[in-house]
Amino acid sequence: MVDFLLNTVKPHFNFWVYVILMMIGLWSLIAKNNLIKKMMGLAIFQTAIILFYVSLGVKDGATIPVLESYGDYAEKAEKAEPAGPEVAPPDATPAPVVVNPADTYANPVPHVLMLTAIVVGVATLGVALALCEMIYKEFDTLEEDELLRKIKALHDDA
Amino acid sequence: MLEQLPALILLAPLFGALLIGLIGLHDRRACFPIAFTALIISLASAIGAAMRAFTGGAYNYFIGGWEEPLGIGIVLRVDALNGLLLIAIAVVAVLAVIFTIRPSSEKDTDKTAYFYILFLLLCVGLFGITITGDAFNLFVLIEVSALTSYGLVAIGTSRRCKMAAFHYLLMGTVGASFYLLGVGYLYLKTGSLNMQDINTILTTNATVAQSPAIVTAFILILVGIWIKMAFFPLYGWLPNAYSYSPSGSSCLLAPLMTKVSVYVMIRVMLSLFGLEWVFGHPGWSDLVVWLAVIAILAGSIMALAQREIKRMLCYLIVAEIGYMVGGAWLNDPNLWGLTGASYHILADAMMTLCLFLFAGILFKYHGVSEIGDLGGMFKKMPITSIGFIVGALAMIGVPPTCGFFSKFYLIRGGIEGGHPEYVAALLISSLVNAVLFFRIFEIAYFGKNPAAGHSHDHGHDDHDSHDHDDPGDAVTTAARPMREAPVYALIPLLAAAALIILVGIFNGQIIELIRLTFEIPATVVSNLR
Description:
heterodimer, A: 158 residues, mainly alpha, Helix Hairpins, 6 helices, 68% helix, B: 529 residues, two-stranded antiparallel sheet, 2% strand
């Protein structure tokens, strides 16, 4: 058990947490009867994905990603060798001829992406809350089984 | 100016939506002209942008001129296939907006401006999904179109549409989130979000391409898109969302949302992962084709059980999605399945538009929503009926409508790819469609008028005077007498019907353009004809 925790869970702790959070979200999305609780499940589900993305950008001992002189680097790199997609591990052996400044930065792209995803998530929850309010005004309940009963009655009357 | 056309496709409806927010909220008469103009500009730009791709091949457009090296640019990519799709989206949007001249939620005129804002933003989302060359922007644009479509479903006056919209929201968000997660895994392995870059890395770097993270990414993306396109086991949100939404919304949503999602799947297979990678996994093709067979049969059977026209059409969409997914996964040597699926995206957009316009006309002007109430329709509304007959024949697959040719290519792919079960499902589904539509033809041609006072709880309370010209009919007391719909409702219907036939007649040229994208020599195509 301890071995499992140390060898499997600890190195990928964030990823374990994200999967568990995601499953909690999906479960409450499927199993809960109350529409607001379903919505909360959706929010947890989305947050889990945000955690996943944020974990992608983390690097040990990295600095803030502010690009100061891209031009210099590009010039030098052109002379030296074409730079591939950054794969160099941060603990690489003695500095290569040209240090790609990106290697010392935390990867900003996933974090920036998540700003957008958070906005999208907030908008979705806003729309969902508005819909819940309209459903409540229409049917006086947010419990799904009652809603289905009332809708069925509506259908039978018609 | 001409090289800016790809951006203009997106910007015209976006600024149109903003303008409606500024002007239309004060003066509702301004809404329609602004929306119409914006969509016409989009249509013209889409044609221009697509023509360039047809003649000069695929090209990239960098918004704001931020080109590659920094990797923060937003890239739009136009090739022959999505050029065709852009034109189709613009055409459907223009026709659907003409249909909304008198919005279907007539009592609620306060919502007119909001309706058009959402309508235009949905168009922005759909154009964006089609044209973007960036995997993450695709997610954002999927959410733009999804959020607006929740609004468009919920804007109706029907009591059930809010509930339908809420379920649509839950399912849609889960689908988009799965897609986002898949893109995350892709980024983890490739360090890029640009579709072309990812494709290059996957095709050149075998260790990356074979890693389990990439397989996970593909499966997550695929499941996410399947939820979005209502592929069979994941279709639950579709029938309610489309049948309870107002007619104006469903005429835009039903032809486009699912079809654009199918295009996203084809795009992901073709230019993100690459067909060799996708079909390099033994068994995947067979599995998905069997799923598609189940989708086709289930959709057709459920359509048979429906009494309402719109709901029947919704289940037919589920079956049609099965056609396209199955076709795209046939993995036949000459890619006829994929060609047929791409062609069917265009064909199905036109057919669905035509039939939903027909259902919209019936419901909006006559309060009719059930098949049994169509008695005597052919005699009283001959022009509307022509539009409907063309749409129905295309669904069945009668030449020279486009439905025949898409089935032709799909079946050819099924035979060459060695999937007899898919061919059988297509033929059975065509037969079921024939039964469905000929039942309607029979009622509409021979049926008597429906009994009076058939209940309609959807707010059409203005009873017109009865139709006294009805010669010698025993049951003349229809609640709302049938007569031709106004011109602005007939124009889009007949235009859609004409397009169905045109897309069918010019199938050779369209197929040639589609296969340009697959990089298959045109000689293979010309041998066929």
